[in-house]
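> call design_seq(struct)
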């Protein structure tokens, strides 16, 4: 499938093209602090008159800043803030219960799982999971399933998982997903595992709930956002290079091409609203098209239905709850 869009397409351009698909929708986005791709996404989408934007984030004051910016620029668009700490399963359950209690929000048309952390020092979540796997994957896995009733109540719901070509850095470490409590830890391998999980989760949702629910994952590109502000790049960049070189990845020797937040959030908009994706449930996207594993970075461990089902079962075990859905 060819796409008329590409690496330089902006979120605002796509919002204009998909305005009819956005108008009247209820859209929930995680990870929307100022200067994030999530914030850029909601600020652009607000221009097309959605019914409601739900902004979910760990720090209410940060989330409120973005909500205020959206409301100031688009006075007719309703915006609501939801506190969601993806690093704590108890907090995730609390946020889901809060959302499910909102009787004036009968459904969720689009869920964009955008929040994430990257290449942090080793730490365990309160539940005992390596923090990147716990926050980037398990938190979103549990939250998404707990609000699935609201998602299924929509006419044509979509779920978008923001992954990364960083999934190239590690498959799921089935027997050591916690990196031996730090002994085997490499921050880039851990990031890679969590981003692989994002792709596999979208595959599983497409398999279990399609065509009723459409699910996609994506690589937004390399963008200078607050995701990497904690990293000392004079050291961290070499660590990333070393990880890629050890795996023989082309990224170990090629230069990164940075893009603007507007170009980075474009694939978010494409995944959430493009009508052309309806027949491609479960696809992994980049540069506003379905990624081509022959020429782009798409690792087979992230597109395997077997790996996807194994991860679903492992995730159910780790969060302590099973999620089964009748076949469509």
């Amino acid at each position: 499938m060819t796409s008329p869009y590409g690496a330089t397409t902006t979120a605002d351009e796509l919002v204009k093209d998909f305005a009819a698909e956005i108008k009247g929708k209820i859209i929930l986005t995680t990870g929307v602090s100022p200067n994030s791709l999530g914030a850029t996404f909601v600020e652009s989408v607000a221009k097309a008159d959605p019914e409601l934007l739900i902004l979910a984030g760990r720090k209410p004051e940060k989330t409120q800043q973005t909500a205020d910016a959206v409301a100031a620029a688009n006075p007719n668009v309703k915006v609501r803030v939801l506190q969601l700490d993806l690093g704590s399963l108890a907090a995730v359950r609390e946020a889901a219960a809060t959302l499910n209690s909102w009787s004036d929000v009968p459904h969720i048309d689009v869920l964009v799982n955008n929040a994430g952390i990257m290449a942090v020092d080793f730490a365990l979540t309160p539940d005992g999971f390596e923090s990147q796997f716990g926050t980037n994957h398990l938190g979103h896995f549990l939250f998404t399933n707990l609000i699935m009733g609201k998602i299924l109540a929509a006419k044509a719901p979509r779920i978008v998982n923001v992954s990364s070509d960083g999934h190239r850095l590690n498959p799921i470490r089935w027997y050591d997903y916690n990196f031996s409590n730090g002994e085997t830890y490499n921050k880039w391998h851990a990031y890679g595992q969590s981003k692989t999980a994002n792709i596999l989760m979208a595959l599983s949702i497409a398999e279990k709930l399609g065509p009723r629910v459409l699910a996609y994952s994506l690589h937004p590109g390399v963008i200078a956002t607050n995701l990497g502000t904690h990293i000392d790049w004079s050291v961290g960049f070499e660590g990333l290079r070393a990880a890629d070189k050890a795996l023989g990845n082309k990224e170990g020797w090629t230069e990164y091409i940075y893009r603007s937040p507007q170009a980075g959030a474009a694939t978010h908009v494409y995944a959430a609203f493009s009508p052309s994706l309806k027949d491609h449930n479960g696809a992994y996207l980049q540069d506003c098209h379905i990624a081509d594993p022959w020429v782009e970075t798409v690792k087979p461990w992230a597109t395997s239905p077997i790996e996807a089902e194994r991860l679903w079962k492992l995730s159910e075990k780790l969060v302590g709850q099973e999620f089964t859905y009748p076949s469509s």
